[in-house]
């Protein structure tokens, strides 16, 4: 552990202490991994040698003036506050366009702050001070409300193939990114690796941009489906959530655990979801149970 890494993690723990004191109720701050803070502490104390997971949590905020409720999802890179935190805000008081504008404004605000300074408490305060300006105060007319019902979204599904998916950090990034963007589907770990995501097209494309980074070779999007949907997207989803899949493996080749997934089990999984045709698209061969 170098000095910069230690300094960043120590500052993150300091900020978590401040946040817990500012938001003392359990429902106000929720850790995705309840042991994550303790694991960072043990790592800094030298009790645990492996690098701890990121600190990922959600802050549930409420403005006093307008009683608007917000959820701010926070993901802290190991080198935060030297690097920017990943923040994403949701609220039932905002439509999709308002939410996008708010998140872009929050991003600009964070970028305006000095790097190296803790900023999650600042972000929470900024949201509480500014959220009302992003909510339309005027009640829409009946005509406008009827138009809302006619709005269509582009539903998108992507089938992604990788030579393998092993590393715990990468697997966590895939799960976290899918959850943040409200995508459903799965990630098949091992060799080969397969990812399916479905949801709004823009969010699928954001997921694809986020997980593709220079060091990940042999990854490609093999197939996509898109359709215009009016109303609830859940009606056209194949999956109810985003999950990680692991099937029985064949072989164990040394330290890398270079094992091959049982593709027969994977074919059955696709068949249950009426997607067996994807097997040949992914692997170039017909699937068999």
From TrEMBL:
InterPro entries reported for this sequence: Phi-like, Prp3_C, RWD_dom, RWDD2A-B_C, UBQ-conjugating_enzyme/RWD
CDD domains on file: RWD_RWDD2, RWDD2_C
Origin superkingdom: Eukaryota
Domain RWD: 14-134
Gene3D superfamilies per the UniProt record, alphabetical: Ubiquitin Conjugating Enzyme
Pfam families, per database record: Prp3_C, RWD
Name this polypeptide is given: RWD domain-containing 2A
Organism: Pelobates cultripes
